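Incident log, entry 3
Record: N-acetylglucosamine-6-phosphate deacetylase (437 residues)
Problem: checksum mismatch between cached and fresh output.
Input:
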Amino acid sequence: MPMAVSPERPRSGITKLTGGRVVRGSELVEEDVWISSVTGKILNSQEVFYEHHVVADDIVDLQGKILCPGFIDVQFNGGFGFDFSTIPQDMATYRKGVGRLNRQLVRTGVTSYLPTIPSQLPEVYHNALPFLGPSGKERNPWEGSESLGAHCEGPFISPTKNGIHSLAVLQAAGNGFQDFEACYGAENLRASDTSPPAVSMITAAPEVAGVFEAIKETTRRGIKFSIGHTESTFEEATDAIHAGATMITHLFNAMRPLHHRNPGVFGTLGEAEAKERPYFGIISDGIHLHPTTVKIAWNAHPDGFILVTDAMKTVGLPDGVYDWTNGDRFVKKGPLLTREGTGTIAGSSATLIECASNFWTWSHATIPEVLRSVTSTPAEMLGIAERKGTLNPNADADLLVLDAQELANGRRNFTVHQVYKFGSLVYDGSEGVKADV
Ligand SMILES: [Zn+2]
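Fresh output:
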């Protein structure tokens, strides 16, 4: 007798996430979120359920965990042993390295980011930038974290606020935007018919010759201009904002400090008009800034507050001495990273979720407020708030399932439980890594 074959329902590619605490604005609400691995987007649950009577392939009970958009890091220099600024002999090796990094980074909850290159010689930008532009076109979840375009930090910065950037490669921009084109490659600053420019953000010092003049053309091309590594006075920073600058790179670090008679770049957060206040990056790794400094920045302008890691390739590696570029080396000791010989702080070795946990521990910010600083605020700054950093219908289904714990010693910790990229579960902390690394 032939075996009865049960007719199989065609798979819809739809997952229903239920029983979670969902971040909606300033609230945590209990509601279901429907996502599609076919479109890679968040669905309108009313429509799905009541109008189309769609049946989910999978129903996931989140058991009270937090559901939030995937994290966005707008300043990330490398990790897991890979450095965006180190150019190998063979660019196929570079491409592979970027791919492997993306699949590792997504496991930390960062589902999209700006690969960042601190001050380098033009040839480094020319070689690297073609591989670092926006990478989500294929919408392939298994590629891991997605580049939203490169962040060029320098080399048009102040020689007295260089931090660990090599003085030998710093430049002025006497010919304005033309010098940006010569340094980064004109094709990397230009949108094509199908995609935005490879470069999404440039950090430069407005007082360096020619930089102020280049701001307008930079932003006209849809590239964000961020003030950083700068001796700018309050007035110079304000002028840069009027010319189109919308961001400050790692506020307080590598810039003139607040003085009561000249409040410097930080002073722009005190503007009466909210629209005149820029967004700003904050490194809350416990080393770059005192917890109180972080709180002052948050209180000054919570809507502009963006946590960044400024992480270097040593994230995910053991303590030791590591080669960097331009003949420099740095020393990793726990989360502390310094330039060998000088002791200067050299970026961080913290993950974004560690930075978020620190900020949550130090401040009175609520969970939705903390999470906003790594999701919707960076997305707004980049002008992509419709599709990233939100759980609204039609946004990309880049989601995190988080545990949030408040320990008896006052420490508060987020941990990444699951990561969805374009509607597919790519990391499950309870089952190990799904994405092939
Ligand atoms: Zn920097």
